[in-house]
Amino acid sequence: MKKKDLISLENMSSKEIFDILKLAKKLKREPLSKKHVLKDKTLALLFQKPSNRTRISFEVAAVHLGGYVLYLSPREIDMGSRETPKDVACVVSRYVDGIVARVFSHQDVVELARYSDVPVINGLSDLAHPCQALSDVFTISENVKKLKKTRIAYIGDGNNVLNSLLMACAKTGISMNVGTPEGYQPLGHIYSEASEIARSNGAVFELFTDPLKAVSGCDFVYTDVWTSMGQENEKEKRLEDFKGFQINETLMKVAKKDALIMHCLPAHRGEEVSDIIDGKNSIIYDQAENRMHVQKAILLRLMGK
């Protein structure tokens, strides 16, 4: 049987996404219900970037399923410098049963999947963060009766998290407002494709450069850091460009009365979000926990029997 990878959400169908959400719900309710499925199987975490949630959630998910986890830190393989992605894929996939790659360049995870004999999961790249987006939609589903009557506002940088969130929302029928400064919009081809898919599922996507208009009437307000890892030299310019885009009481007043605040973490309080992130309407820690449940479902789909 041909192996399956999870590199981005573009190639996942709506049914596949809903199947993962349904399985994650069951696994959250019954954490050890599939505790022997990955018995005698090894998952390699091949990371070019350090991590908190991605590493811990995948490690715990694999262990709950009976598997063994091998963590390969940024300096151990030095993929792209010491060894090519092709050589890494061809060698590592002979030792293990699955690979989670957290990389700087999306092309590296594409190359890993191309040459690997075992499933490859994108744990984050500069283009996409599919596991995060699936967990986000799962978290939203826990707080609403119907996804197709839900609207989320994403305020901030048009980054990898947004790219994947657009696809996840489009394929599950969630309407979306995107508020970014000029020059920081999501990639055109991804936004256009996601918008078309959203329309076919009864959802509406809109772009704004005014954060107040973007947040108006929304059920959820989501943000991420303005300066991602590897962009540190742009920080001062970004702080200037993103003035007015902070999620705070002013913005939340124009959202729905009980709108919930989301952030994929780590958060820079005082920059993209005020201390409102610690208030009663924040569900950021639910998001973080749900990474484990959703990734457990992903591992079952890709590595289980």
Secondary structure elements and their pairing?
Layout: H1 14-29, E1 42-47, H2 53-64, E2 68-72, H3 74-77, H4 85-92, E3 98-102, H5 106-115, E4 120-124, H6 130-141, E5 151-155, H7 160-172, E6 175-179, H8 188-200, E7 205-208, H9 211-215, E8 220-223, H10 235-241, H11 249-252, E9 260-263, H12 284-303
Parallel strand pairs: 1-2, 1-3, 3-4, 5-6, 5-8, 6-7, 8-9
Helix pairs in contact: 1-6, 1-12, 2-12, 4-5, 6-7, 6-12, 7-8
Ends apart, CA distance between termini:
11 Å
What's the CATH superfamily of the largest domain, by name? Aspartate/ornithine carbamoyltransferase
Main sheet record: 5 strands, parallel
Total helical segments: 12
The CATH topology annotation of the largest domain reads as Rossmann fold
Report mean pLDDT, rounded to a whole number: 96
> What is the count of structural domains?
2
What does the oligomeric state look like here? single chain
Tally of strands? 9
Order of helices and strands: HEHEHHEHEHEHEHEHEHHEH
Helix content: 40-55%
Radius of gyration: 19 Å
Please sum up the structure shown.
With 305 residues, the chain is an alpha/beta fold.
Provide structural commentary.
The protein has helices at 14-29, 53-64, 74-77, 85-92, 106-115, 130-141, 160-172, 188-200, 211-215, 235-241, 249-252, 284-303, and strands spanning 42-47, 68-72, 98-102, 120-124, 151-155, 175-179, 205-208, 220-223, 260-263. With 305 residues, the chain is of the alpha/beta class. The chain folds into two domains: 14-129 and 291-303, Rossmann fold; 144-282, Aspartate/ornithine carbamoyltransferase (Rossmann fold, 3-Layer(aba) Sandwich). The strands form two sheets. Strands 7-6-5-8-9 form a five-stranded parallel beta sheet. Strand 3, helix 5 and strand 4 (120-124) form a beta-alpha-beta unit. The longest helix has 20 residues, at 284-303.
